[in-house]
């Protein structure tokens, strides 16, 4: 009989980086499928482009940095970054948008800071912001829900639009964005923002055909699918509930207060939670273990900060959605949060009281 | 190495005000949206540096030590005013483009830094040379950064050359490619920060390579070891 002596930790989840990243990717699948169902095949083309670019640029830069690139490529972190970026950008955006964005995310935001674990900012969101401020026209051209559009887009059309700007039948992206009456359709957040500036009330804005009983058609389902994936992530303990809970709670709470004060110009909490990238941001983006706060108390502050910024920028800022900006702003605050909210070391207590 | 050669090397490379001392970053980042803007501000700064360094060097023995900083600042401000009026007279369009950043040359730490660190301790000739080389080093970085941002953002080089050099220079503008949509990030301030970071990284990498090349192979002393343990 042998007496085994092992060093701590004695409880081990048997989960490595690659396994964790794969789990997150699997949990994003329902959202991706629903997004593809409502917004067409473009997302598939974007995903393929993004993953290829991510793997190539990660491999080349690891080789340049003389690191072991086989192991790093096998950890799926680059793939996850690519996927998060690909589902964030408009499905029919030109190919160079996603290629440039993924290259920026992997090379500038991740590898130049020292690779996985050393990046200050969430790579996918930093790249998204870079693209949004550099190419506002392409980055805001969200194709509307397929059910409402004049032309249906199949896989060949989607690939053709992404690479050449026109479908196989010769329609441009601008034409694809119109409904059967030839009116360009926007995303729900865009629509409400524009209508409010035109003097309409929030409820009048909801009469637009892209809304269906208070939610944007498709967008609510996409958010529900990401919520489902996120709950699985919490259930499997891949992420803690603190960041998504605090973010969605803050967003809903502020929205509820504002909605209660003036329902004609402030959107309802449900509208905020189920449009745009709220669920994707809460469960898949804000929870990035590298760039988020590390203690549970810190995570609550971090998540709440993101929720606050999302609401402020959506309602008073210059952009319709704000998850990327909010995440980057709070990434900057992470060192401060981690400094002031260190968990108490066992056996030590604070001097006061 | 002679003093002049050393000053040249220090200003352009080893102690480059922008890449190594990281001084004067405000105008550096703000005006380098095109190559010509960078060149214009760089030349203006160089002119001020030469003038202020020379003057400070001349008066260095009569200025009381306690009030030297205000005096240096006044000397610099005088030269900046001269440069500003000259630009207003001869390169009016460029003067308008650079705007507030011409008077702000007064606050460029590189200039007061050189006056304090070098010119106030060295004779006229060396001080003027130091000003020239530091200015050229600064200009070099402005031009390279401006070229990078202009190329990425608009696909052109030397656009607006006529603002600095007169009408004949209009033909200098090179349009290397016409982007479908301008790469706004390169033209906006964040692009300047990213470009600056990349330039500094490139400079450090190049430095390291040069040093490794010229480093004398370390004397390897072979030590004879005697095996003392036996099985």
TrEMBL record, chain A:
Q: Which cofactor does it need?
A: FMN
- Sequence intervals crossing the membrane: 20-38, 44-64, 73-89, 95-113, 125-145, 216-234, 241-260, 266-287, 299-316, 322-341
Give the membrane topology.
Multi-pass membrane protein
Instruction: Classify the main location.
Output: membrane
Xref: InterPro entries: NqrB/RnfD, RnfD_bac
**Which Enzyme Commission numbers does its entry carry?**
7.-.-.-
Q: Which UniProt keywords apply?
A: Cell inner membrane, Cell membrane, Electron transport, Flavoprotein, FMN, Membrane, Phosphoprotein, Translocase, Transmembrane, Transmembrane helix, Transport
Q: What does the UniProt entry say about where the protein is found? A: Cell inner membrane
Residue list for modification FMN phosphoryl threonine: 187
Q: How does it assemble?
A: The complex is composed of six subunits: RnfA, RnfB, RnfC, RnfD, RnfE and RnfG.
Family that this chain belongs to? Belongs to the NqrB/RnfD family.
Q: List the PANTHER family hit by this protein, alphabetically.
A: ELECTRON TRANSPORT COMPLEX PROTEIN RNFD (PTHR30578), ION-TRANSLOCATING OXIDOREDUCTASE COMPLEX SUBUNIT D (PTHR30578:SF0)
Function summary: Part of a membrane-bound complex that couples electron transfer with translocation of ions across the membrane.
Q: Which protein are we looking at?
A: Ion-translocating oxidoreductase complex subunit D
Automatic annotation (TrEMBL), chain B:
Q: What Pfam families is this protein classified in?
A: Rnf-Nqr
Membrane topology, as annotated, equals: Multi-pass membrane protein
Keywords carried by this UniProt record: Cell inner membrane, Cell membrane, Electron transport, Membrane, Translocase, Transmembrane, Transmembrane helix, Transport
The domain of life for this entry's organism is: Bacteria
Please state the protein's primary subcellular location. membrane
The EC number of this protein is: 7.-.-.-
Instruction: Spell out the InterPro entries in the cross-references.
Output: NqrDE/RnfAE, RnfE
Membrane-spanning residues: 40-59, 71-90, 96-115, 127-148, 182-202
Q: Which NCBIfam families match?
A: PRK12405.1, rnfE
For this chain, the family text in UniProt reads: Belongs to the NqrDE/RnfAE family.
Q: What does this protein do?
A: Part of a membrane-bound complex that couples electron transfer with translocation of ions across the membrane.
Q: How does it assemble?
A: The complex is composed of six subunits: RnfA, RnfB, RnfC, RnfD, RnfE and RnfG.
Q: What is this protein called?
A: Ion-translocating oxidoreductase complex subunit E
- Species annotation: Pseudobowmanella zhangzhouensis
């Amino acid at each position: 009989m042998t007496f085994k002596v092992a060093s701590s930790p004695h409880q081990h989840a048997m989960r490595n980086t690659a396994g964790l990243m794969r789990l997150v990717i699997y949990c994003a699948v329902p959202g991706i499928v629903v997004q593809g169902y409502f917004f067409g095949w473009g997302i598939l083309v974007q995903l393929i482009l993004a993953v290829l670019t991510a793997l190539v640029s990660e491999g080349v830069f690891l080789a340049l940095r003389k690191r072991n690139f086989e192991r790093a490529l096998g950890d799926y972190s680059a793939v996850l970054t690519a996927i998060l970026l690909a589902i964030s950008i408009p499905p029919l955006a030109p190919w160079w948008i996603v290629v440039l964005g993924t290259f920026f995310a992997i090379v500038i935001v991740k590898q130049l800071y020292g690779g996985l674990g050393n990046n200050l900012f969430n790579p996918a969101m930093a790249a998204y912001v870079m693209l949004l401020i550099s190419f506002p026209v392409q980055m805001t051209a969200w194709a509307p829900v397929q059910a409402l559009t004049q032309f249906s887009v199949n896989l060949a059309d989607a690939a053709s639009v992404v690479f050449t700007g026109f479908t196989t039948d010769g329609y441009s992206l601008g034409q694809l964005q119109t409904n059967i009456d030839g009116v360009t359709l926007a995303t729900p957040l865009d629509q409400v923002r524009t209508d409010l500036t035109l003097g309409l009330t929030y409820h009048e804005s909801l009469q637009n055909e892209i809304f269906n009983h208070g939610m944007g058609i498709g967008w609510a389902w996409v958010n529900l699918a990401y919520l489902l994936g996120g709950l699985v992530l919490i259930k499997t303990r891949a992420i803690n509930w603190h960041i998504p809970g605090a973010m969605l709670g803050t967003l809903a709470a502020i929205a509820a207060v504002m909605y209660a004060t003036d329902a004609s110009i402030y959107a309802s909490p449900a509208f905020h939670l189920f449009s745009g990238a709220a669920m994707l941001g809460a469960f898949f983006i804000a929870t990035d273990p590298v760039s988020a706060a590390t203690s549970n108390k810190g995570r609550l502050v971090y998540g709440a900060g993101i929720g606050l910024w999302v609401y402020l920028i959506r309602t008073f800022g210059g952009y319709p959605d704000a998850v990327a900006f909010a995440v980057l702003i709070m990434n900057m605050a992470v060192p401060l949060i981690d400094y002031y909210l260190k968990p108490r070391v066992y056996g030590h207590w604070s001097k006061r009281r | 190495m002679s003093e002049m050669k050393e000053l040249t090397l220090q200003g352009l490379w080893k102690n480059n005000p922008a890449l190594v001392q990281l001084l004067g970053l405000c105008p550096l980042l703000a005006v380098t949206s095109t190559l010509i803007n960078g060149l214009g501000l760089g030349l203006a700064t160089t002119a001020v540096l030469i003038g202020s360094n020379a003057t400070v060097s001349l008066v260095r023995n009569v200025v009381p030590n306690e009030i030297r900083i205000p005096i240096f600042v006044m000397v610099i401000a005088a030269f900046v005013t001269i440069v500003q009026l000259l630009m207003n007279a001869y390169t009016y369009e460029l003067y308008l483009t650079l705007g507030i950043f011409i008077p702000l040359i007064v606050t460029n730490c590189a200039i007061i830094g050189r006056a304090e660190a070098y010119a106030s301790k060295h004779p006229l000739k060396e001080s003027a040379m130091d000003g020239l080389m530091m200015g050229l080093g600064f200009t070099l970085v402005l031009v390279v950064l401006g070229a990078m941002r202009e190329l990425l953002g608009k696909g052109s080089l030397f656009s607006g050359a006529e603002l600095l050099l007169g009408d004949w220079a209009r033909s200098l503008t090179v349009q290397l490619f016409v982007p479908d949509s301008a790469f706004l990030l390169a033209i906006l301030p964040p692009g300047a920060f990213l470009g600056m970071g990349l330039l500094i990284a490139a400079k450090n990498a190049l430095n390291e390579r040069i040093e490794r090349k010229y480093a004398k192979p370390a004397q390897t002393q072979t030590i004879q070891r005697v095996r003392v343990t036996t099985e």
